[in-house]
Amino acid sequence: MQSNPKTFMAAQICHKGGKLEMKEVEWREPKRGEIIVKVMACGVSHSDSITQDQLLDGIKYPRTPGHEFVGQVCAMGEGEMKCKMGDMVGGSWHGGHCLTCEPCRAGDYACCTGQQYNGVTRDGGMAEYVCMRADACIMCPKGMDPAEMTALMFRGATIFNSLNSMCVKAGELVAVHGAGGLGKLACDMSRCMGFRTVLIGEGDKLQREMNLSRESFIDCTKMDVAKELMSMGGAKVILCCIAESKRLPSFVGGLCPNGQLCLTNISGEPYCEIPMIPLIMRRLAVCGQPAPTPLEVEQCLHFCKMTDMHVKVNKMALKDCNKAWECAMNPDEMKKPVLMMA
Hints:
The protein is of the alpha/beta class. It has helices at 49-52, 102-105, 146-165, 180-192, 204-209, 225-231, 248-251, 276-281, 294-306, 321-328; strands at 7-13, 20-26, 34-43, 69-76, 88-91, 94-96, 116-117, 129-133, 138-139, 173-177, 196-201, 217-219, 235-240, 255-263, 285-288, 313-317, 336-340.
């Protein structure tokens, strides 16, 4: 029988605004409904700053961030039936639901009013081990790179879920407002789903890095985005993968009738002015996409495996967590920073 350690190392934020600090953490046995995962890889994301800046209620310090992790089950609480020892599982933003609120009773766990968040309201995966809710674990398909899977656990699955739930058909135009590796992932997913795809971004460097043709890229610093989109027939969906609320009003005019503007990221600016006339005259909609449920993440993983989709990652040691954090805070970074556990 495998023996578990008395202590393990974790990267923790110890106070609001603080940097990551390496700490020795005591092992605790999982309670009923919990499992412990020996972490193999944990992605570092810009959204980890929510924990650092205490942007949500329920964040207490010290806290181990990380809501994109993959590892193997090494301990289980009493009566656990979903997993078995040695299973490869993952964790995303969704850290568990209450089952008693109105959304939960309707099966809409993503909108649970009593939801827990991995790496935010409970400790996450920037550690050698993580204790998580069993109902929040993601069953990982075999044959995928754990480091690449971390990039799909949260932002990747949110993009997949957005495209999967929008009112858009194969052959119609999807415009992705994005940058870096996340923008590339969104474009790749959109094309694999059969949509005509154009990226809205900043600068010639981004266009070159993504190897995009002139017809597949709109430079929002030099071009009228709405005019360019309408010259292509109008976008059925504009998928916003980066938080720049100041640019969104100028995008709306590029939607075709019955088009949708989908927001997937939280901006530092909580409000955005959207012009009313095109919304009314073209029957447009503005919607948000919450973080995916474990089942939705599993669907995303299977889709990426089936389509042989890959994500560029930059593997780093846990001790280099602050260097990885700096990379993650750069929206133009093409490689996903991933902490690998020894």
